[in-house]
DNA sequence: AGTTGTGAATCTGTTCACAGCC
DNA sequence: GGCTGTGAACAGATTCACAACT
């Protein structure tokens, strides 16, 4: 389990997260075994891709039968690192930020909000879904004290630059960036995942016109 | 301009949307010309990729100088289809839905909300950011009458199945899906873009551990 | 009989290096 | 001189076909 994950490309991990959705669906239907063909159909890809992806991490299947769902879920969650708790801080408690604080999925993925931050004095001190909102001035100290590993950025893009002065980038390992800003983390060992609505809209605008080769 | 876009892979279009962000930034700095190396650095990729991507749609650059920013923005917006208005309906006016209705980016991309839908009677009839909330029962008729091309789904995943009975899939060309559900549009000529928070979290969980080969 | 796991072949995307042009 | 545009080489991902196994 040491370097089993090294050399795995992001594209495979993205698919793993999709497979996990399928497995949850299958489990809810009280199935015990699922075939690579079934997973593939649900995801809209070829079954050989599904099989090859899993073999990157070991041989989880039973030849002639398929994959034991409960076991496969366990394995995939292990691979994705979903069994260890991760401390998260949210920055920017607007509409989107509020929606995120209330989102159940964070709990399922073992993400724990330890605090939210904003610069609006009306909001500071209040709680959303039990999570306290702090003054953004205290962010740096907070990250240090509470071993925050992940930051979620849901502020206006224009605010990003000044916020980054307050982040101790040594402790933070991942950023989920909902702004359109390109984050100044070059060269740092931080994994950034950009979720840019504007870009998604532009993409859908183009792709509506033409049916493209691939699906994400 | 007819079949110039056919045969272009999604990955290139995704990068185009990133380039557009860079071009806006450069424009704000009152620059007139930008080099492929500069765009590449901002996006964290090789300059040859940038150049090759643009040549898929024509030769926009000036040899020995670079790309004229204003012109390139115009071209890229044209390619992405951002100059034509698209009618959008939002389904599910929760926290996320509300955030989306207020989001400025839709305006920039020429997306026009013509209506929002919910099943909560407390919400029906009210307005968010000027957009009226209708009873979800009237969705099908509404799509027909108002030539809705794009649907944005921000409902609980469990609600997806029943909603899909109310969508006239012949008219709809694109769906922006914020649920974890795998949408039942197989075989239809609809472009679906999934923005699944749960999956993003799982991905960040894995990638934090290991620095992967690629960035999205 | 039926499905996984996998090497080999194919396809797609990236990098390199430089000719062509301003 | 300097940057774009591009063919050729390379790397990576997907598909195919089937051997291995239950």
Classified in CATH, the superfamily of the largest domain in chain A is NAD(P)-binding Rossmann-like Domain
Which segments of chain A are poorly predicted (pLDDT under 50) over 5 or more consecutive residues?
Answer: none
Count of DSSP H/I helices of chain A:
9
The two chains with the largest interface, and their residue counts, are: A-B, 72 and 72 residues
Structural class of chain A: alpha/beta
* Gross geometry of chain A: elongated
Estimate nothing, just give the exact number of structural domains of chain A: 2
* CATH topology descriptor of the largest domain in chain A: Rossmann fold
Mean pLDDT over all positions of chain A: 90
Tally of DSSP β-strands of chain A: 9
CATH class annotation of the largest domain in chain A? Alpha Beta
How would a textbook summarize the main sheet of chain A?
7 strands, mixed
